[in-house]
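Structure representation.

___
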Amino acid sequence: MTKRKGQTLIEVVVATMIAAISATAVFSVVLTTTISTARSDKREAAALMLKRAQETLKNYVSAVPTESAYVPNAGKWSADSSGVWALEPGTHDISSLMNCPYLVGNPANPVINPKCDACSQSSSVCSFTYTVTTLPCGFNAAGMDVTRTQCKQVDFSLKYPDAN
């Protein structure tokens, strides 16, 4: 048998398969990292929205609901679509706080951001609500409006689509 210089077809196929498997592994790590970063950003934005909502509601805790001098915006939160006192028992929709850059692309010729379509007004995909429950505190005086002077428990609900 004579020796030939170069590689055989089997060697080339094996080398190609090893390169393909290595490239697949690298791209898999890159893709996983990108998706994880997007989800992390979304969680961070959600945490910020919740914190802002909590801080805003604190303004109404010590307010006297019947005296306009002590109540911000006459006791109503402008983000709340219900139009009632911010700590009125029940569910309040504050989905308007879910800001989204509706126009993207070239400023001279912007297009509607397709990700914002999912979070438009009255969307079933996106919502940000809080529910106020009245709890007895034991310090209500006779003649006081019980609804407005009792302790309140506030539970938030934030529904947002996954990052693509």
Remarks:
- Residues 9-159 form one domain.
- Strands lie at 90-93, 103-104, 111-112, 127-135, 151-159.
